[in-house]
Write a structure and sequence with these properties.
Blueprint: H1 3-17, E1 24-31, E2 39-45, E3 54-57, E4 62-68, E5 73-78, E6 89-92, E7 96-102, E8 107-109, H2 112-140, H3 145-172, H4 176-185, H5 191-233, H6 235-243, H7 251-255, H8 263-273, H9 281-303, H10 310-313, H11 315-325, H12 332-348, H13 354-372, H14 376-391, H15 394-414, H16 419-424, H17 440-449, H18 451-454
Parallel strand pairs: 1-7
Antiparallel strand pairs: 1-4, 2-3, 2-5, 5-6, 7-8
Length: about 450
């Protein structure tokens, strides 16, 4: 085999096998050992359900949780059966290790935002204690209006000071934590402060909406440019593709497709290539194929946890496929194979059962290689990232990578291809492309589009 081919496959394996560091938060809690055997609950806010509540037993006065660092809000509470005078503790799921002490005055420390939240909690408790003392003095001096008025003024000043600090804390944290605190404490703000927070939040939402609109406009212009390019600047290349492609809808002829991998996309691709001869036919078919593929990639990226500029990241594999489609002998069946690959991935992750997904992935890999050929590697990449990021299932990911490398070798014996040809089919070395492994450019751009899920923290 060509040594460059081995290098590229090796690079693909190394990049795909890299451990995906999922941002996690480890909660290490301490509580009185008298509650050993009781259950500590981690309750998501503001809308908990039985399925989203986590729990742990108290062992030797300690407990622990490990959760995704996704900025979600949680309460740490003890089981009601313990009948314990323990204060619930509000925390934020932030990357790092959080050390908590659960008791009559619960506290936490360890991550930046939780440290700020703890400082705000201490301010709240201090203000509450001072206000309670003043309330007691007011009750003792009910008959003296002058002293009562002075004490009430001091108490109101404490409330106002704490309200101002809470206002600043929320304004600095326009995130799930700030939103939750505003939702629960809105009554303590005056009209001006409430309006200010709402306006600031609305501006942030407007900015986010504007970014999405700009992304949508860019994507629309991209596909318009794609159609114009193939219609005005590349029509004769598409006509050439039509001339070198033959498709006869006869049983004997169609049976020949079953003798090689990618039988499904080859039949569909060769049939649709006939319409490249029509005015605007080729540009419309290619643009529509790219649009459906982009839509699939966009949904797939959202499933892997990419929420910022998802539409733009999803364009990267399409850019690669556009460039490859400019080659005179790069068949439509390859682009259709990429489209089938991403939608097959979305179909396979509908199952919530880990065992069922494992079985589906193995079956799907075999079916995809037979049905679409070389671009089944795109399915492998999406599955590996998804399983590692959401389920830390590295063993399954490694197993699927091995399967994806051995399936073409097995196919080479079944389809009477050389091992090298089996990795590229329906591309044919020397006939279609001098270096057919260039199709992995699309897989490389797909890996690039998944970088936000692997590296960057989503906002």
């Amino acid at each position: 085999m060509n040594k460059h081919f081995f290098y590229l496959i090796l690079l693909f394996c190394i990049s795909s096998c890299q451990p995906i560091t999922k941002k996690m938060m480890n909660i290490e809690g301490v509580v009185s050992s008298e509650y050993n055997g009781q259950i500590i609950y981690l309750v998501p806010r503001p809308h908990p359900t039985p399925e989203t509540v986590d729990s742990a037993y108290i062992v030797n006065g300690t407990f622990s949780f490990s959760i995704p660092a996704d900025s979600a809000i949680y309460d740490i509470v003890i089981s009601r059966r313990a009948n314990a005078p323990i204060q619930r503790l509000l925390i934020v799921a932030e990357e790092g290790t959080l050390h908590t002490t659960i008791g009559m005055n619960s506290s936490s420390t360890g991550t930046p935002l939780n440290n700020q939240l703890q400082h705000w909690k201490e301010q709240m408790e201090s203000a509450g204690e001072k206000a309670a003392l003043l309330s007691q003095k007011i009750n003792k001096n009910k008959k003296d209006n002058t002293i009562t008025a002075i004490l009430r003024g001091q108490r109101d000043s404490i409330y106002e000071s704490f309200g101002d600090s809470t206002f600043c804390f929320i304004k600095q944290n326009l995130n799930p934590l700030g939103g939750y605190l505003f939702m629960t404490l809105e009554h303590m703000f005056n009209e001006q402060q409430a309006n200010d927070l709402k306006k600031t939040w609305n501006r942030k939402m407007e900015t986010r909406t504007m970014r999405k609109q700009i992304d949508s406009i860019f994507v629309s212009l991209f596909f318009i440019a794609c159609w114009i390019f193939f219609f005005y600047f590349y029509p004769y290349h598409l006509h050439y593709k039509e001339q070198i492609t033959l498709c006869v809808l006869q049983p004997d002829f169609l049976q020949t497709y079953l003798q090689k991998p990618a039988f499904l996309t080859e039949i569909c691709g060769d049939y649709l290539t006939q319409f490249f001869l029509w005015t605007g036919g080729g540009s419309s078919i290619l643009t529509l194929t790219f649009m459906l593929t982009w839509l699939g990639f966009r949904i797939a990226l959202l499933k892997t946890g990419i929420s910022s500029h998802t539409s733009l990241w999803a364009l990267l594999p399409i850019v690669a496929e556009w460039a490859l489609s400019c080659h005179l002998e790069y068949p439509l069946s390859m682009s259709l194979g990429l489209m089938c690959s991403v939608w097959a991935f979305l179909l396979s992750i509908l199952s919530t059962s880990t065992r069922m997904r494992e079985i589906l992935h193995v079956i799907m890999l075999t079916i995809l290689y037979c049905a679409i050929g070389a671009h089944f590697f795109a399915y492998v990449i999406l599955v590996v990232v998804y399983e590692c990021k959401h389920f830390n299932n590295y063993k399954l990911s490694f197993f699927l990578l091995l399967i994806s490398l051995f399936i073409p070798i097995g196919g080479s014996y079944f389809y009477f291809l050389t091992p090298r040809q089996s990795y590229f089919y329906p591309l044919i070395s020397g006939y279609m492309l001098r270096q057919p492994f260039v199709f992995l450019l699309t897989e490389g751009f797909l890996l690039l589009s998944l970088l936000p899920a692997l590296i960057f923290r989503q906002v």
